[in-house]
Amino acid sequence: MNNKKFLAAVVGLGLVTLSACGSSSSDSGSGGSKTVTLVSHDSWAVSKSVLADFEKQSGYKVRVLKDGDAGQAVNKAILTKDNPQGDVFFGVDNTLLSRALDNGLFQSYEAKGADQIKSEFRVDQDKHQVTPIDSGDICVNYDKAYFSKHKLNPPTSFDDLVKPAYKNLLVTENASTSSPGLGFLLGTAAKYGDEGWQDYWKKLKANGVKVVDGWEQAYNEEFSGSAGGKKAKADRPLVVSYASSPPAEVIYGDPKPKTAPTGVSYGTCFRQIEYAGLLSNAENTKGGKAFIDFLVGKEFQEDMPLNMFVYPVREGATVPAEFEKYGKPASDPETMAPDKIADNRDQWVKSWTSLVLK
Question: Looking at residue 179, what is its pLDDT?
C-alpha cells in the first residue's frame, strides 16, 4: 500500500527506516541463518529501537529490500517466487491480495498472537497464507482554509463530489498506477455497484476531476491543504488521500499547527488492509516466522502509526493522541470482498482508463 504513507513527504523529519544487514553464504538455510530478509514497498518504516528489540530478543539481523510501490513490489515478488529475494513479504493489500494468493506467493503460517487480531481484518482463515498487519482508510481530504474562505461546506459523500459547487476542486490518482487511486475506484464501485460506478465517473469527469499518476504528486503538488501544496501554490482543495493524513500535517508541521489544517470527508472512504506472508521457497523460514510474530506483536503494532501512518489491527494497541483527535478511522467505510476485487479489478481499471483518461 504504496504511495499512501507520508514518508516521502517528511524525508529528513525524523522517521527511521531499517538499515540493510547483508547475509553471507555461511548463514543461509532455514535452520542456521542469522539474517531474516524482508521484502516490502518503499513506505516500510520502523523505529530503530523497536527493530533493535526484535534483533536482540530473536537473535536475527534484519535485512530489508524495498521494491517500489505496492503493485511493483507484489509483481516482482511473483516473478521471483521460485527463487525469492527474501523470507517475508510485507505490504500486499486487499486490492492486490488475490493476485498474490492465486500465484502461490506465500506458504502457510499462523502467527503467534494472531488470535489478538481484530476479527474484521482476518481473511484466509483456513490456510493462513497471510497475516493482517495494518489498516488505513482511503478518503477524500479537504483544505479547511479554502472552504472557510469561500463559505462553502466541504463535501461529505461521494454524491457531493459531482455537485456543481465542487467543480474543478478534486484531484485523484490514476487507478492503474496508484494504490489510493485504485482504492478510490473500488470505493465508488462498492457504493454504486458494478454498472453504476461508470455513470458516477462520467459525472465526476464532467465536474472537472483532475487525475495525476500518484499520491505524492496529488497530495504534495496539487492539494492546497498540504504543507507541500502550499509551497507549490496548489489550487485543488480536495484530494484522494487517507484518514490518517490530517494527523501527519499536525505532527510534522513547521511550525506545528494547533489543529489540523485539513479534514476528512468520511462518506468517501474505502478500507485498505495490508498483510504480511512467509514467502514460498524462503530460505530462512524459522526467522521469517519469528519476524511475522514480531509484526503482530504489541510493540510493533503501537510503533506503526507514527512511522507509516496506518492503524494497528491488534486488539488493545494504542494509537497516538493526534490520531484520536484528527485522524480516526471511518466508522462505516466502503469495503469489498477480495474475491470480488479479483474478479473485477483488471476490467474495472481498463474501463476506468478508457472512460476517464481518454
Answer: 83
Helix ranges restricted to H, 132-209: 144-149, 158-161, 179-206
CA dist 220 → 19, 45, 229, 357 (Å): 27, 20, 5, 22
What is the pTM for the complete model shown?
0.83
DSSP tag of 153: P
Cell of 353: 482508463
- pLDDT, residue 125, reads 64
Supply 229's cell numbers: 501544496
First-to-final CA distance of the chain: 26
Q: How far apart are CA 146 and CA 225, in angstroms?
A: 8
CA–CA dist 58, 17 (Å, integer): 19
- Would you say 318 and 245 are in contact if contact means Cβ atoms under 8 Å apart? no
Amino acid 258 reads: K
Nearest to 237 by CA among 171, 307, 156: 171
Contact criterion met (CB below 8 Å) for 85 and 281: no
3-class secondary structure, 238: strand
> Which grid coordinates are listed for 263?
479534514
Report the C-alpha gap between 9 and 215 in whole angstroms: 10
Q: How far apart are CA 345 and CA 348, in angstroms?
A: 5
3-state secondary structure of 328: coil
Q: For position 23, what pLDDT does the model report? A: 36
Q: What is the mean pLDDT of each run of 10 residues along the chain (358 residues)?
A: 44 34 38 85 93 97 89 88 95 89 94 92 79 96 98 98 98 90 96 96 98 92 94 96 94 88 97 95 96 98 94 95 90 91 93 95
Q: What is the pLDDT of residue 28?
A: 41
Question: In the prediction, which pLDDT does 112 show?
Answer: 94
Instruction: Give the residue from 300, 328, 337 showing the smallest Cα distance to 134.
Output: 300
From residue 331, give the alpha-carbon distance in Å to each of 66, 266, 268: 32, 8, 11
Closest C-alpha to 305, from 314, 121, 276, 330: 314
Q: How far apart are CA 325 and CA 307, in angstroms?
A: 18
